[in-house]
């Protein structure tokens, strides 16, 4: 199956969204393969502006299936808010969206630590992060300590989540003097997230290889 790959080689704001929107009109599957909910991108169709952060912009076209791949770090509640907003704008997001079971989840402690680290750096060493926790979540992925979307399909994830929250709260307290995040709030959010997307979770690598 022929494919077109759009890669940003600078620091964002390169016009990727315009290229993707142009290609989407004649494309069956749109894949978001990495990144998180940073500044996002804007697409204008028939004079109306649509803003996307995690959901592939191809969702606005009738023929496309949109895939969020295993390289994305996903803020679950932000993602649901975006999907619900697009649903209200008339796009059947949940009917045409596939979500990788290997996609890593981004939690409040990621953004808290991201913000704390950026704040404590001297001016010449600041990264300029958006403080959304994306880099911190990728660090957990590389260290094999994060949770993936597919982990939520087994309730045993709650034990791992409790351990992670306890560990990150110690870091927030001892290193940065910041208040803890709530395990219960995060877990309730994940239950809500799963109730909305359970039917959309698949092995997207297998889907793309065999479709």
TrEMBL record:
Entry-linked Pfam families: Adenylsucc_synt
Binding site for Mg(2+): 13, 40
Any Gene Ontology biological process: 'de novo' AMP biosynthetic process
SMART domains: Adenylsucc_synt
Source taxon at top rank: Bacteria
Its EC number(s): 6.3.4.4
Cofactor binding note: Binds 1 Mg(2+) ion per subunit.
InterPro entries, alphabetized: Adenylosuccin_syn_GTP-bd, Adenylosuccinate_synth_dom1, Adenylosuccinate_synth_dom2, Adenylosuccinate_synthetase, P-loop_NTPase
Catalytic activity: IMP + L-aspartate + GTP = N(6)-(1,2-dicarboxyethyl)-AMP + GDP + phosphate + 2 H(+)
Chain positions recorded as GTP binding sites: 12-18, 40-42
Keywords assigned by UniProt, alphabetized: Cytoplasm, GTP-binding, Ligase, Magnesium, Metal-binding, Nucleotide-binding, Purine biosynthesis
HAMAP family attached to this UniProt entry: Adenylosucc_synth
UniProt function note: Plays an important role in the de novo pathway of purine nucleotide biosynthesis. Catalyzes the first committed step in the biosynthesis of AMP from IMP.
PANTHER family in the record: ADENYLOSUCCINATE SYNTHETASE
Family classification: Belongs to the adenylosuccinate synthetase family.
Subunit structure, interactors included: Homodimer.
Protein name (record): Adenylosuccinate synthetase
Lineage of the species this protein comes from: Bacteria, Pseudomonadati, Spirochaetota, Spirochaetia, Leptospirales
